[in-house]
Amino acid sequence: MRLVVDMTKCQSYAQCCFLAPESFTFQGQEALVYDPAPTDAHRGKILQAAAACPVQAILLDRSDDPTLARRELPAPPPGPTPLGPESRVVVVGASLAGLRGAEALRREGFRGELTIIGDEPEEPYDRPPLSKQVLSGRVAPESTTLPRLEDLDAGWRLGVAATGLDLDAKQVLLADGEHIAFDRLLIATGTRARPWVDPDGAGLDGVFTLRTVDDSRRLRAALEARPARVLVVGGGFTGSEVASVCRDLDLPVTVAVRGPAPLAGALGAVVGRIAGDVQRDHGVDLRCDVSVTTLEGQDGRVRGARLSDGTFVEADVVVVATGAVRNVEWLEGSGLSSGEWGVTCDAGCRVFDLNGVVTDDVFVAGDVARFPHPVFGAEFMAMEHWGNAVEQARVAAHNMVTGQVRRWAHLSVPVFWSIQFGHVIKSVGVPSVADEVMITQGSVEDRSFVAVYGRQGRTVAAVSFDQSKLLEHHRRAIAEGAAFPPDASTVNEAPDQDLEPAGLPSTRTPWAVAEETDLVVTGDEPSEWRTTWRPRRADDQQPQLARQE
Amino acid sequence: MTITETTGTTSTGTTSTQEAYAQVVDHANRADPYPYYARLREQPVARLDERTFVVTGHQEILDLIHDPRISSDPRNLAEGHSIGGHTPAAETDAEGEPAEESPSLLNAFVMLDAPKHDRLRSQTMRHFGPPHHAGYVDAMRGDMARIVNDLIDGFGDAREVDLVEALAYPFPVTMICEVLGVPREDEPRFHAWSEDIIATAEATGPEDAAEKRERAGLATAQLTEYLSALADEKTRDPKDDLLSGLVNHDGPGGRMSRVDVLNTAIMLLIGGHETTVNMIANGVLTLLRHPEVLERLEREPEHVARVFEELLRLEPPAQVTPTRVALDDLVLGGVLIPKGSSIWVMWAAANRDPRHFADPDRFDPDREQNDHLGFGGGIHACFGAPLARLEVQIALVEVFRRLENPRLVLDPPPYRRNPFLRGPSHLPIAFDGVRPR
């Protein structure tokens, strides 16, 4: 069987752990770890668990579900440009957003030709387990293949990258030279791991990044060989989860963090320091306010790293976890508004062209999409979250098949989660835009609390450690623009409700990108105005220093 | 969002709420209270009286049960306000402090807030479920099937039984006794105590309420005495049961105090007596009314998982929880609820909210996204839910596997008095024979 748990919904009611303990377990009080490919021998129990989940977060593969075939799908509504049975939709990107988008197209009643293109050879798989239960060896890397929630009836082009887009001819160009024509295009090419800044160091044996199933397979093998020490470069979510698995496996691990604390880039220094204390409690050698300057090797194998404070960390495995790079290169020259910041779109997932005019036929979803959100100052932002990929793909698919009057906007409040050191950390809203933070409920000492984030008097985010049930309330408060700091009497009030600066790094503005790239406008008449893209830096120049959390 | 401030009791909304509520609790309507729940739900959040609000909408209840401004501790009610027949003042000592020394359902963690709730619940969970005892309930599947089949064997040559007497009651009671470590032969005594304790919700008037409160107090005292003696025994001679675990375990949160052990045991014993029995009876009744679902269940026993959840949506045994309190002024579903108000959570109404469930009165086990509230939700979600789930699912599968041509003798059957814990008092069914196990 195949399944996935929508952890954005999970509130740790534990019904699955009771009913199917072979496949669902808790680490600590609330953190769910599950087997995404349980054996058929447990089928009855899995069905009980899925039915029992109070938030219906367990999604089972339905490719052989007879009720799907019996179901009547809605006819595509009439619109100015209906997507009839002779139409062609191409999805570029065969990961979570691409798959869920394709499924949503079918669920919306699209009966035409559907092609899914992906550069990796595997069927769409789920990435969050790769840094958790796969890395720890609880489940096999292959088991993370995503369940199919619909009968897709798609043409798959896996293992072939898209290399270009011809908007005039409405064709996607593939690495093998083929051209695939479309009436509507969904871009879901996501991100890739940011490689170590120096290719020599990156090429050493024992240096890893973690993004793909292949990465996790290789890193898992390296951990199984019981290295003397693992060095994790970067204290973001991936880096912290890798460190957590290392400690689970009783491997010595050092985490080097450029900022004042792990997770500080996403959650700010106040909550980051708590995460750092948790790491130290679990035996992590945590080094903050340092960067790794060089990875040093011997005979082609890594032997350690030099840090900016002059110290040397001996390590035979180095995991570079310094964030992600968006897969936009294939769109260069296409005339779409795309770049390091992502592919820019409106709230309905329709991609802007370089002139800032919205396209009718090109949509984007997932990590690569950069969209405006009214709750967060209507700023354009890209969200590298599982939940965002799912929800945005659904909105994009809906808008691909419906007419203008029925269009949806992608306005959900972002949610993400991490499981590390026996805790489930969840976030709603966008902590990174906050200027202040306050622990509102629970106890930091017990590692069970909620922190609420504000920006200029408005609540913009909340983060919980092992308090997922409370977070649901804050999600709504954020959407409704609740005042910050919150002043209501509540249950479980935190002992010291101090207002503190959130301690987030100042966000880079788009001008930082403009230092590398210029958009220039030419023309004198409305009919002549054009935006063109002009790279400012020479191609042989080093890319800018890798960003670390 | 528009905010309605429902002032006074003269608004038409309040009058219609009071009328609909009176119909919901009227025993004459117990067989089908749902049309009246639907009338209540016309205002998803409505004022019942000066200090009481009823919440019937699915989304509104979800908002409510996750809202940290909501307390489950009746001691936070505004002064002079009573709830379910209990006056919180009566539960405080001379200094006005919570009377923690007298064990009672009202002091159990179901009526406490975090963090004390969380500590007691996890100290109890340690002996019942994940993370420390993860496979405990799952390992009882075989026992459950055996007990159910023994009870069905006990039908003997009868061709008609009262399913409540013959199975729906004795089965879960046997299980809760086994889990807690209470001798099965003492069961008739605490059956009576349990009935008296929950009967306060059945009061017909102020005088009756006073009498029922007195009886409930007496029953609580007797039950406490019984459990206290049993706890002493478990301290001297620990067994592999929950009560032994509670009295003897010295966990990270320290040992549970004796009074908390008794509060918890009272709650689990009552929970195990008053809800699962209704679920089994409601389940058999509903399935006998839907032969097409029954046919599929016999062909495909795995289907019971979804059948059960749909039963729980349509016929939740705990229909109303009248014990929430607003700790601050708050707006719910567009209605302003003042601090100190009592809030009644109407699960049975939310489970049929047409804004959330398409065709909500239809029994449709294939329903997608069946996120019903049959076991409540939030931090107070039913503690015993996993046990009840397996008990009922196993009971339904075995009853319909073994009885030949089962049918209802009386439809609708007679119902118990309690409006909040709803279920048939008797469920006579006839059949042509009993297949071998």
UniProtKB/TrEMBL annotation, chain A:
Biased composition (Pro residues): 74-83
Cofactor(s) in the UniProt record: FAD
Region (Disordered): 66-86, 117-139, 481-549
InterPro entries the UniProt entry points to: FAD-oxidoreductase/Apoptosis, FAD/NAD-bd_sf, FAD/NAD-binding_dom, FAD/NAD-linked_Rdtase_dimer_sf, Reductase_C
Superkingdom assignment: Bacteria
Record PANTHER family: APOPTOSIS-INDUCING FACTOR 1, RIESKE DOMAIN-CONTAINING PROTEIN-RELATED
Pfam families listed in its UniProt record: Fer4_13, Pyr_redox_2, Reductase_C
Organism per entry: Microlunatus antarcticus
Protein name per the record: NADPH-dependent 2,4-dienoyl-CoA reductase/sulfur reductase-like enzyme/ferredoxin
Keywords: FAD, Flavoprotein, Oxidoreductase
Domain FAD/NAD(P)-binding: 88-393
Membrane spanning residue stretches: none
Molecular function via GO: oxidoreductase activity, acting on NAD(P)H
Domain Reductase C-terminal: 416-488
One GO cellular component term: cytoplasm
UniProtKB/TrEMBL annotation, chain B:
Residue segments, region Disordered: 67-101
Upper taxonomic lineage: Bacteria, Bacillati, Actinomycetota, Actinomycetes, Propionibacteriales
Keywords from the UniProt entry: Heme, Iron, Metal-binding, Monooxygenase, Oxidoreductase
Family to which this protein belongs: Belongs to the cytochrome P450 family.
CDD domains: CYP164-like
Basic and acidic residues composition bias: residue spans: 67-78
Organism: Microlunatus antarcticus
Coiled-coil ranges from the UniProt annotation: none
Gene3D superfamilies (UniProt xref): Cytochrome P450
Protein name: Cytochrome P450
GO molecular function, one term: oxidoreductase activity, acting on paired donors, with incorporation or reduction of molecular oxygen
Cited InterPro entries: Cyt_P450, Cyt_P450_B, Cyt_P450_CS, Cyt_P450_sf
